[in-house]
Amino acid sequence: QVQLVESGGGLVQAGGSLRLSCVASGITFSIHDIDWYRQAPGNQRDFVARAAISGGTTYADSVKGRFTVSRDNDKKSVSLQMNSLKPEDTAVYYCRSSRRVGLNRVYWGKGTLVTVSS
C-alpha cells in the first residue's frame, strides 16, 4: 500500500519559517520525482517545488529564493523548508510522487495545512 504522509504544517506569522516533511512508503522511492503542490481555498492546486530523481530541483516563481526542497532517499523523505512566509502562502500543501522508471504512477498525500497570518 502506497502512502505519502505530510507533516509540519501549522500557523506562523508573516516573515516566519516552517519545514514540511513528506515520508513515503510502499514505493521505490529513488525512482520517483517528489513534488510539492499547494491549494488555497477556492483556488486550483498549484505546483510549488520538485525534488527530482536526478537530484535536481525546480521551483515555482512565487517561491524561488524563499523555499528549498531536498530529498533523502535513504529515509524515503522529502522536506520543504519555507522561509520568509507570506499570507499568500496560506494553503494546504500536498506531496506527490511520480514514477520515472517503467510504468508511470502518480500518488498524492492527504496534505498539511499552512496558515500565515499578517
Q: Can you walk me through this structure?
A:
- With 118 residues, the protein is mainly beta.
- The protein has strands spanning 3-7, 10-13, 18-25, 32-39, 45-51, 57-59, 67-72, 77-82, 91-99, 106-108, 112-117.
- The strands form 2 sheets. Strands 2, 4, 5, 6, 9, 10 and 11 form a 7-stranded mixed sheet that branches.
Radius of gyration: 14 Å
Number of strands: 11
Low-confidence stretches: none
Q: Bin the strand percentage.
A: over 45%
The 3D shape can be described as: globular
Mean pLDDT: 97
Structural class: mainly beta
Helix content: under 10%
Tally of alpha and pi helices: 0
Query: Largest sheet, described in full?
Result: 7 strands, mixed
Give the N-terminus to C-terminus distance in angstroms.
40 Å
Order of helices and strands: EEEEEEEEEEE
Summarize this structure briefly:
The protein is an all-beta fold and 118 residues long. It is built from no helices and eleven strands.
Which labels suit this protein?
single chain, 118 residues, 7-stranded mixed beta sheet, 4-stranded antiparallel beta sheet, 0% helix, 55% strand, globular
